[in-house]
Amino acid sequence: MAIMFKVGTGNTEVDYSNRVIAGSYDVQTKPIYTSWYDGDGKEHRKLTRNTPRTEGSFDMWFKTIEEYNDFAAQVKNSRLTNLTVLASVRSNTTDELVSGYFYIDFAPVRTRRGDWTDIMERFTVSIKEM
Fold it and tell me: How far is residue 8's CA from residue 31's CA, in Å, rounded to a whole number?
């Protein structure tokens, strides 16, 4: 299956999969547990959540500042009061589509081209399912 990153739901869903940089897509589904070591140094784990959590990161790039601004606005307008965003991603671990509420963080760096137009450089997006 292919890389997937969609933000929003229904009529407001926008697919940004074609803006994800190949080779950077590190999205995994993992069990959530606490671990401890006993006196013999053996590790023990106990599940603390019944369902696994999907999280990870990937790099994105937009050709124009307007495309980036549209993306940033889509994330902002989709953000709920608990700071999560409804999004869909594909897990590398399970190769399944995961739709849910994610914390989405990114910090782009602005640069100027030789023709004096501004763009955002390639930047990393971090996601973590609620």
Answer: 25
Runs of H (alpha helix) within the chain: 65-78
pLDDT > 70 fraction of the chain, expressed in percent and rounded: 99
DSSP string, 66-77: HHHHHHHHHHHH
Torsion from C-alpha of 25, 128, 123, 23, nearest 10 degrees: -10
Model pTM score: 0.87
CA angle 35, 40, 43 (to 5 degrees): 20
**Whether the Cβ atoms of residue 20 and residue 5 lie closer than 8 Å to each other:** yes
Sequence length of the chain is 130
Q: Which of 114, 111, 130, 113 is nearest to 122 (CA)?
A: 111
The 10s digit of each residue's pLDDT in 66-93 is 999 999 999 999 999 999 999 999 999 9
CA angle (14, 57, 103) in 5-degree steps: 65
Beta bridge pairs of residue 109: none
**Are the beta carbons of 91 and 28 closer than 8 angstroms?**
yes
User: What is the pLDDT at residue 1?
Assistant: 64
